[in-house]
Every structure is written in structure tokens, then in C-alpha cells.
């Protein structure tokens, strides 16, 4: 859903942000997992837009502490514009109670950010069943419960709204080692895609967006969260939220954040390689397969430096041409490390 009213503002260290459509003074933002990290940064940024906040987290003590800081710093001590509630997002009845409190006090929701998640590392068999259930219950059912509890009401309200679901690059590229987390975030990606499609087909004034952070410094551990002092390669949580809002302004569905170490082009090349495992019938997760490691490295080098000496990307072929990782047509191009030709009404087959 493109946004019709746009007021650009510069994001600074105080958390000021873009104001447009559902985001602005007097509107209402709901954020899960709001006591720390990206959820807290989003709450701080949206508060400085004059938005009312409904924040929840499993850690009520921490939530109340950071919530008081927002009330004092942004709302001059007036807590009437901020709801703080302990919620286990894996429990539907708690999400429903949260929704009822928000609607009773504020009347509507303009931004629903389903951000709460947990991370426990381990492979497919290294993790016991309670770990798997915890990851699925919080990371996936937290989003399902939030969607079921809030979105029907968002669809029926008069004002525009957005649903922002926090995903993960690990749910797209699937690096080995964190099976339960990767599975939960892959499912979140699919769920958000389905939600966005259904809202679009319903001509709803509510839209859904998949927000995929890069390497973020939050002070805590995790697969995409640097602990301790901020490394040079990581973004701050506020930088990540700023990028998210910039892409939301444009109406983007996929909001895949770079960082100081991984560029947008690097992300695109990695995702294209992963998608082409199925297309080219390579081994699962071939990027980490010993027989494909060198091919992947060469593919990345050529993709990031197309002018470098090497295989020509154009061989003068006619017809419809080839499909590049970005979806553009060319005479000849790499798609995930192999040339792919457009033939037979658009089917992609390895070039001869």
C-alpha cells in the first residue's frame, strides 16, 4: 500500500524519524518485544513522532524501566499515552487481552510491529524438543497470535495501518547450525507473504511488511545481535529502524537491511544463490557444501565486481535473453553461479 501523505524528517541520535501515513502525531503504535533491542528502538523513534505507544514484553521489570524513560524523555512525565503490559506472545489469550487494553484506551491501532523473538542455538538433533517448541511458540506463533488478535480489527477501522513483522536473514538463506531458529523465521517469512497477499486482494487499508534486520548492535547476544561494545560492522538498532521507516515510506514489502559489513548487493547475491539451489538441483545449502565453496566465492566476486576479468556476461545471443539475479533480462547472466536462459514461455533452464 503506497502512502499518500509524506513528511520527511531527518533521523538523528534522539530517534526522530519519517512521518507519513499511519505514522504521525496522535496515531497508535503497538510493539511486541519492546523492552530491548529493535523493539525498544522502534518505540523510541515512534514516540518522538508523537505516537501513542502500546508496548509489551515478557520481561515486565525491564519494560517498565525503559517505558518510564520514554515517558519522562518524550512525554514530559505524562504516562497517559503509553501502555506497558507483560505479555507472553506465544499465548493467544494474552495477546487478546493486550488488544482489548489497547482498543479500550486508544480506540485503534495504526502500526502493529510483531517483533518479539527468542534465540537458542543448535542443530537439528542437538536441540531437545522443549527448545524447538519454545522457538516455534514464540517466534512463529507469536506472529500468528498477533495477526489473529489484531489484524481483523485493523481491517475494519477507518484509518490506514501497517503490520510490520520482524524476520531474519537466517530464515531466507538458512545457514547451518541454528535449525530451530531458521525454521521459525522461514515460516515467519511465508506467513507474512501470505498475509500481505490476502490484505492486497481484499483491497484493505492495512498492509503487511517483512522487516529483515542485518547485523544489529543491541547489547545482547543472538544470531544477528552483537553483544557488548558495538563492532564496526554492525548498525545500531536506531539505524536499523530508520532504514525500515525509509522503506516503509516507499511501500516496500521486503525490507532487508544492510549493515556496515554486508551491503545490499551482497545480500541480493546470497539470496539469489540460495534460491537457485532448487532451480539448479544443487545439494541443499550448497553455499556451505565443500564442492561448491569455491564456486560461491567466485560468484560473489563476479557479482560484486562485474567489470572484473572472467566469464563474459554477454555472448550475443538473441531471443528473450537470460534472467539475472535481480530479475533483469540480458543476453547472458549468472543466476546463483550458473547461466540461466529464458525459454519456453519463461521457464528457466541452464544455458547450453
Question: Which terms would index this structure?
Answer:
Rossmann fold, globular, alpha/beta, 7-stranded parallel β-sheet, single chain, 352 residues, 9 helices, disordered N terminus, 17 strands
What does this molecule look like?
With 352 residues, this protein is α/β, with parallel strands linked by helices. It folds into two domains: 6-261, NAD(P)-binding Rossmann-like Domain (Rossmann fold, 3-Layer(aba) Sandwich), CATH 3.40.50; 267-350, no CATH class. The protein is built from nine helices and 17 strands. It has a seven-stranded parallel β-sheet, sandwiched between helices. A hairpin with a 5-residue loop joins strand 13 and strand 14. It is globular and about 60 Å long. The two termini are 41 Å apart.
Rounded radius of gyration (Å) = 22 Å
Q: What does the average pLDDT come to?
A: 84
The biggest beta sheet reads:
7 strands, parallel
Under CATH, the topology of the largest domain can be stated as Rossmann fold
What's the total count of β strands?
17
Q: Which stretches are low in confidence, meaning pLDDT under 50 for 5 or more residues running?
A: 1-17, 311-323, 329-334, 339-352
The helix content is 25-40%
In DSSP terms, counting alpha (H) and pi (I) runs of 4 or more, how many helices? 9
Q: Categorize the overall geometry.
A: globular
Amino acid at each position: 500500500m503506497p502512502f499518500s501523505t509524506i513528511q520527511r524528517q531527518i533521523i538523528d541520535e534522539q530517534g526522530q524519524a519519517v512521518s507519513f501515513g499511519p505514522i504521525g502525531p496522535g496515531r497508535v503504535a503497538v510493539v511486541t518485544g519492546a523492552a530491548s533491542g529493535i523493539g525498544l528502538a522502534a518505540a523510541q523513534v515512534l514516540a518522538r513522532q508523537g505516537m501513542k505507544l502500546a508496548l509489551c514484553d515478557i520481561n515486565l521489570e525491564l519494560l517498565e524501566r525503559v517505558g518510564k524513560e520514554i515517558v519522562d524523555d518524550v512525554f514530559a512525565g505524562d504516562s497517559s499515552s503509553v501502555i506497558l503490559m507483560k505479555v507472553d506472545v506465544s499465548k493467544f489469550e494474552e495477546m487478546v487481552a493486550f488488544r482489548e487494553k489497547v482498543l479500550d484506551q486508544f480506540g485503534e491501532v495504526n502500526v502493529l510491529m510483531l517483533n518479539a523473538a527468542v534465540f537458542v542455538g543448535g542443530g537439528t538433533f542437538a536441540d531437545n524438543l522443549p527448545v524447538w517448541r519454545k522457538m516455534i511458540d514464540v517466534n512463529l506463533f507469536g506472529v500468528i497470535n498477533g495477526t489473529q488478535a489484531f489484524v481483523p480489527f485493523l481491517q475494519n477501522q477507518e484509518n490506514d495501518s501497517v503490520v510490520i513483522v520482524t524476520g531474519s536473514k537466517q530464515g531466507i538463506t538458512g545457514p547451518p547450525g541454528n535449525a530451530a531458529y531458521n525454521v521459525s523465521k522461514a515460516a515467519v517469512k511465508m506467513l507474512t507473504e501470505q498475509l500481505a497477499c490476502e490484505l492486497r486482494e481484499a483491497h484493505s487499508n492495512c498492509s503487511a511488511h517483512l522487516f529483515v534486520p542485518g547485523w544489529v548492535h543491541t547489547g545482547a547476544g543472538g544470531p544477528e545481535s552483537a553483544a557488548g561494545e558495538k563492532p564496526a560492522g554492525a548498525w545500531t538498532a536506531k539505524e536499523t529502524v530508520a532504514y525500515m521507516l525509509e522503506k516503509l515510506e516507499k511501500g516496500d514489502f521486503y525490507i532487508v537491511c544492510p549493515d556496515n559489513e554486508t551491503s545490499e548487493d551482497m545480500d541480493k547475491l546470497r539470496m539469489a544463490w540460495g534460491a537457485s539451489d532448487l532451480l539448479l538441483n544443487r545439494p541443499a545449502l550448497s553455499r556451505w557444501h565443500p564442492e561448491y565453496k569455491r564456486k560461491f566465492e567466485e560468484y560473489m566476486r563476479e557479482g560484486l565486481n562485474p567489470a572484473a576479468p572472467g566469464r563474459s556476461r554477454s555472448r550475443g545471443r538473441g531471443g528473450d535473453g537470460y534472467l539475472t539475479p535481480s530479475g533483469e533480462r540480458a543476453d547472458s547472466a549468472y543466476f546463483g553461479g550458473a547461466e540461466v536462459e529464458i525459454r519456453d514461455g519463461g521457464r528457466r533452464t541452464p544455458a547450453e
